[in-house]
Amino acid sequence: MTQSLNDESRKHIEQVAGEALAQLESIAETAKSKLHDGRTLGSNALASINTMTSSSAIQRLDQISQANRESYQVLVAEPAIARVVVADEEGEEKTYYICRTTPVSGFPNLASYRAPVGRLASLAIGAEFTLPNGTVVEVLERAQLRPNALADGWDSRDTVVEAEHFGPFTIESLRALLTEVAGEEVTEDILGQLLAEETVKANIIDGVRRSVITKMGLRDQPILDQYQDEIFRLPLDKRLLILGPPGTGKTTTLIRRLGQKLDTAFLEEGEQRLVETVASAQGIAHANSWLMFTPTELLKQYLKEAFAREGVPASDLRIRTWQDYRRELARNAFGVLRTASGGGTFVLKDGLASLSETALERPIQWFDDFDTWQRKAYVQELHDAATQLHEAKTPEVLSLSARLQDILSRAADGALAAMFGSLAVEIAKVQALVSSLKEGSDGKIKAALNLQLNRNRAFLDELARVIDSLQQAQATDADDQDDPDADEEEDATAPRTGRAAALNAYMQAVRTQARAAASKRAVSKASRNGKIIEWLGERGLTEADRAEVGASLLVQASARRFVNPVKRYLDGIPKRYRAFRRERQPANTWYRHEGFEARDIHPLELDIVLLAILRAASDLISRPNVQRDIDSPAWSSLQPILGHYRNQILVDEATDFSPIQLASMAALAHPRLRSFFACGDFNQRLTTWGARSADDLKWVLSDFDIKEITVSYRQSKQLNDLARAMIRAVGGTEQDASLPAHMDSVGVAPALLEHATNAEAIVGWLADRIREIERFVGQLPSTAIFVNTEDDVAPVADALNAALAEHNIQVIACREGQAVGQESNVRVFDIQHIKGLEFEAVFFVGIDQLATLHPALFDKYLYVGTTRAATYLGVTCQGTLPSAIESLRTHFCQDWQQGD
């Protein structure tokens, strides 16, 4: 409970106000002069000192100079965010000022919030803290400052001051407090004194006042509470998940942590050395080596804004939606998706009806089934190849086959890394064997071609015309791609037209024919090679040569499996997935019976393929010997994947992502650092495939450190009570969301309109409530209206605009969740875009319809939507409250007139 303000406390607060405002002015002035005197060390100054200095040193100094300038700019606008008084064991007191950025020199008691001393700003009165020099101090007094530069000096608005013997109090204006003190002696008449007393009372408010949300976006919380603060300071190599109800500052903690961890000055010495090593190996500066995933485009925009406040530049390259990043990885990095230039296996189809309910409900088991199957399939492929080699007659091939079989027989189940290590020793010998055999078989085929050219010089030109006609007809048999013995020397860069393409096609077709003869298989007449063979007739190899070349090609194909086993394993995962799907489809376990194109893939299937690739690569790269020898032929195919790793991976709204998606993101964290930080809330999961339990998340990372934060800073008591009752009503995950101590959290009951069957009634009711809010608050705070479909956005905005025109309140239709217009506008959104935003007032239109539209997620949408509001919540129904939440009726009122 706050202690009332006596004269002694009031005098003390006045002293604090005077000292704080003087300090704000002094810091801001010093920063401004540093900014303007231009004496930050730059390349020109350095070059004149020593012309021999390396360009990297000059660059480093330029970076320092730039960082200093950015810090000065922050300090000019916001000199400090807290004032803390501590006492050591001898009772000696010291006052610290804490700022958001790197402090300016000349202020020994000014510390960055990111520095260890910055933790003082988050500690409770009476808490003990060990300073970096080992001195133990106790927190005696704390003031949270919100600096405000006025034309004639500094002020701090809504400053919260507390100490052992008083507070907390919220002071509207420190400046006004000092003006009153100065004016007291001259106010001799009683009326003047009475008015002055009233002004003082209005300026100093008992407890902590909740701020009104006036703009749309993520709330700025300059100082975290002590639990959030502890989390953001944990070491860089942690794998953390923060769970907590809406408004508990999960995202703020995540942003603050990233800000601190990007600033190498605040990393531990060992961490600094490690990030430098990784940066020089990867060629990416630590400051740029991070990636954050968010479920929606709209939330991405707000995160960028919040990062900017924290002084962290966040481009579209750093904050990504998984949807975009997944496509980019699959198409451009791993060749899973087809491209126009001919690479890739699959075509991504968002609405593909390929998956069964089981696949959506049990993604972990689905992934494990595929991954186990494809590993076995790959090892079996190697066994078959080694056996095939054993059937060759030459001693050289037999001895190689024996060594390979020995390695494979010793490989433990699933221990691919050790097997690849042993196979690496044989790569040079295998390569030599393949080259010599290929030289012989190519020689025979080219001799046959020369024979044709001697008879007909136009032979290649005629074949080129045939190929062009085949390309136009697009006669490609889908199963051609799955031929395990298909040529590997043909790559995507092979010429597409002309004589060179004809030569290529001739070699390929003749090889296919020879291989088919040796393995007693027919070539499909519908395939491209089949059509070329048919055209060639007797103009290929003789029957005797065909048998000899075919036998050599089969040995080559088997040996080639051992030339680059790691690359073959990773590159083969998409095709093995297609074979797995074909095999599992009849069982109806993960896939529907109904036919769909073999080349089409659903986004959630693509996640399975990507995770198999990323996990396999990560298992290998995390081994010290592999990292050390990454440039050697055995491991060099891992280089491109290494280029996708980042020092820090962060995920907002983690429960909207499936365990497979989260595991893929976690696999992008650099193996030397393994820094992964996610936040979310199971009750706010707005996807049917999202993570459902802590067990799901422990599967993603077995050493996930899961922390819960429960103090909700957003909502009024009435809305917090409603949110808790809603979780109980719909059987969500119970959470003990509490409100901050000493905070004025009283609001108004949520308002409900039922039987609103026509649009006029709904719009009229919404307009009345919005006008009430403006009257209560004195200005129109941040207000959102959620409708059930994109088609409802514009009509509701237009009708409401007309209804509010006489009070000049503008209503904006935010199509596709795009936030446009001025801060003072009322905004209308489709409900699917509600994630992560917060408003002072929120209205839901037609929640009984929502229950029909989204039966599986209705309770989640309702919970997320109601918890976007800080104080005012209005709900309309065409009929009555949905039965699932009928028990919440007692929480609602009809309007807010009673507060008028």
From TrEMBL:
Keyword Oxidoreductase: no
Acidic residues: bias regions: 477-492
UniProt-annotated stretches for the region Disordered: 473-498
Pfam families assigned to the protein according to its UniProt record, in alphabetical order: UvrD-helicase, UvrD_C_2
Domain (UvrD-like helicase ATP-binding): residue spans on this chain: 223-716
The keyword Nucleotide-binding is annotated on this UniProt entry: yes
Keywords: ATP-binding, Helicase, Hydrolase, Nucleotide-binding
Binding site for ATP: 244-251
InterPro entries per record: DNA_helicase_UvrD/REP (IPR000212), P-loop_NTPase (IPR027417), UvrD-like_ATP-bd (IPR014016), UvrD-like_helicase_C (IPR027785)
Name this polypeptide is given: DNA 3'-5' helicase II
